[in-house]
Write a structure and sequence with these properties.
Aldehyde Dehydrogenase, Chain A, domain 1, seven-stranded mixed sheet, 2 domains, three-stranded mixed sheet, alpha/beta, 11 helices, 320 residues, Aldehyde Dehydrogenase, Chain A, domain 2
Length: 320
């Protein structure tokens, strides 16, 4: 919202149909802060409401966050209406590359944090772990311990001691469980987790597995896949073997290698020895089917501006 307002725009903020109350509560805070009426307009509803906005002839810009299929629908609506500008922040299948010279404790802490937050329901979760062969057993065991510890902190998100809540709704729960059940039926090794937690709600224990489908498909849930690599070239090849390119992380004590690998990764943001982070000062967005356009930073501000060229003939004499 900040770039849009800084550029002098008014706008409509449509919430996700899965979490409308959060955005409504945000509206109360905006009123309390004294925002003028009509600057920020909060709207709730499902995809039909979003489609109406995307087709509306008086909307001149759409910034959409969601799935790749929904993003394509937004682009089509923009083309069919008034050719409004569109920026898209879509899916991700972000890799974490763990080299054998990495600080293992740091790599485990940050990669597991990146994946575990919001129970994997975040577009840049590090849901693909690529670990160098000679340290794979030790790293996998450490991640297993981290996941088992996370299970003890899962519960009612309204409680202060809860770190991890449920999946967003029944539909998402069933989707995640279908992936995990299918993996087991195909004989894929589930290293830890992957079961429903309790007999009520949509809680799923965080899973660590080895599976090609889960390796490439965005699940948007608590399932991380693990693969090994021999050398730097193979690590980069595996990391880029996806239709997405939102974020990546690299763990190594060799800064030169970290920067070299970061330059080769097809991702909008790369974290080195750190979980994937964003800030208002830096642009955020993806390569490939993770979308285009940027949020935040100078690039994010430009998304809400229109360039204009003005020519002046200064050689015209003044009238007397």
């Amino acid at each position: 919202m900040a770039p849009a307002m800084a550029a002098g725009n008014t706008f409509v903020l449509k919430s996700s149909e899965k979490s409308p109350l959060v955005t409504c509560a945000y509206g109360d805070l905006l009123n309390e802060a004294g925002f003028p009426p009509g600057v920020i307009n909060i709207l709730t509803g499902d995809g039909k409401v979003g489609s109406l906005l995307a087709h509306h002839m008086q909307v001149s810009k759409i910034a959409f966050t969601g799935s790749a299929p929904a993003g394509r629908a937004v682009m089509a609506a923009a083309a069919k209406s008034n050719l409004k500008k569109v920026s898209l922040e879509l899916g991700g299948k972000s890799p974490a590359l763990i080299f054998d010279d990495a600080d293992l404790d740091n790599a485990v802490e940050h990669s597991s944090t990146s994946f575990l937050r919001n129970s994997g329901q975040i577009c840049f979760a590090a849901s693909r772990v690529l670990v160098q062969e000679n340290i794979a057993p030790k790293f996998i065991e450490a991640i297993k311990v981290a996941f088992e510890g996370a299970e003890k902190q899962m519960g009612d998100p309204s409680l202060a001691n809860t770190a991890f809540g449920p999946l967003a709704d029944k539909k998402q729960f069933e989707r995640v469980m279908s992936f995990l059940t299918g993996a087991r039926e195909e004989g894929v090794q589930v290293l830890v987790g992957g079961e429903r937690k309790g007999d009520q709600g949509t809680f799923v224990n965080h899973a660590q597995i080895r599976d090609r489908v889960l390796y490439t498909d965005e699940i948007f849930g608590p399932a991380v896949s693990v693969r090994t690599f021999k050398d730097e070239d193979e690590a980069v090849e595996l990391a880029n073997a996806t239709t997405y390119g939102l974020g990546s992380t690299v763990y190594t004590s060799d800064v030169a290698r970290a920067l070299r690998v970061a330059g080769k990764l097809e991702a909008g943001t790369v974290g080195i020895n750190s979980a994937f982070n964003t800030s208002p000062q830096t642009p955020f967005g993806g390569y490939k089917q993770s979308g285009y356009g940027r949020e935040s930073g100078p690039e994010g501000l430009k998304e809400y501006l229109q360039p204009k060229t003005i020519h002046i003939n200064m050689n015209v004499p003044k009238k007397k």
